[in-house]
Amino acid sequence: MTALTAAATLATAPLLAGAAAAALTPLLQRRRVPLPSPSVTGLLIHSVYDKPQLNLSGISKNTFGEILDCLKNNNINMITVSQHTAPRSLSRGDSAGIIDTDTPIQITSTLPKTAITFDDGLSSFYDNAYPMLEERGIKSTLFPVAGLIGKRGDWDVIGRPRHITAAMLREIADSGHEIGSHSLTHANLVWLNDDELIKELRDSKSILEDIAGTAVKSLSFPFGSWNKRVWNAAKSAGYENATAYRGHRSAPPEFMPVFGVYRFDSATDAVSRAIDVGTLQQAAITPAAASPSLIPPLSIQSATSKAFASLMSHFCKGTPLVKFRKTYRLFPQPSPPALTSSERS
Fold first, then answer.
1. Quick one: which of 84, 188, 275, 284 has the fewest CB in 10 Å?
2. Between these two residues, 134 and 19, which has the higher pLDDT value?
3. pTM of the full predicted structure?
4. Pairing of strands 116-120, 42-45
């Protein structure tokens, strides 16, 4: 194989695999009924670097800083995933981004709100994103791959990224950031049999709780792949909340939909995915009060940006087809029948 052929293969493999995954996703997640759109959506970030990397899911420190400043300067309430569905209320007067994560809350403020989440638990979070969040008093939700703590990943299409160590994870948790689970080995949970699925969910939760010294209540599904069988298993393992990288319209109330942020996105692109234009207008955020990095987006820009992010979720950070494991089943077990109204309440 020539160098040119190898380069072409490397460039096109994620695109072809992403297209296949986009076609397969409806089959893996079928028989779910659409539910009302949630009031809160979040942002999903994988890595933050000094300079852009080859991987499309990494963003620069400059872009990340602009996103944070844009949200904070516009008084966006920053919450964690667990706080999305928890019982206690937060008054309108609470400071944006500064929330006690040990006390579950449900945001009732009329100000717009969002969450910043990080998948994988890469060391770039600790090196670059974590200090920037702390500097601004913003708390995030971090979803490490429990079996890769202190190791290099081997599941991604491009490279073997370093993951945070146990000491780093404990420091992050002690600083007030929520720690959730991104499974034990970054397996596509939908493709696992019941025993392997439970192991991925329970073992990762136990490992992370032992390291962080705090309860792990939230789950981020590797590759954004989930169905009712997976969520039922997660609830039986003790999870209470989850993020939905895909399948937003059919996500149950315990889920917070998230949109990915990618290497070529601007801060305005990212914020328009997390905050609805109508919500900004209801909160009386005017152009004069807005951060320079937030030009009030048009509704069509917001909708287009969200649609593009949903499409890119099939092309970034690999797909279940690129690293197909021997333990995966060729024909994944579909979800049970659709949720009834009593099950959703």
1. 284
2. 134
3. 0.75
4. parallel
CA quadruple 97, 231, 246, 16: dihedral positive or negative? Answer: positive
Degrees, nearest 5: CA angle 223-118-83: 105
Residue 3 has pLDDT above 80, yes or no: no
| Domains contained in the chain, number | 1
Task: Tell me whether residue 252 is in a domain.
Answer: yes
Q: What is the pLDDT of residues 236-267, one digit of tens each?
A: 999 999 999 888 888 899 999 999 998 888 88
Residue 19 lies in a domain: no
Residue 121 lies in a domain: yes
Tell me if 310 sits within 8 A of 18, measured CB to CB: no
Q: Is residue 337 part of a domain?
A: no
pLDDT at 106 over 50: no
pLDDT digit string (tens) for 141-153? 999 999 999 998 7
Tokens of 200: 């991925």
Tell me the C-alpha to C-alpha distance, in Å, between residue 24 and each of 18, 40, 214.
10, 27, 36
Report the alpha-carbon distance of residue 186 to residue 156 in Å, rounded. Answer: 9
The percent helix, strand, coil of the chain (3-state, each to 5) is 40, 15, 45
CA gap 264, 251 in Å, rounded: 28
The residue count of the chain comes to: 345
* Cα 242 from chain centre: 9
Cα–Cα distances (Å) from 115 to 84, 91, 141, 252, 308, in that order, read 9, 17, 8, 18, 19
Q: DSSP letters along 218-234, please? A: EEE-GGG---HHHHHHH
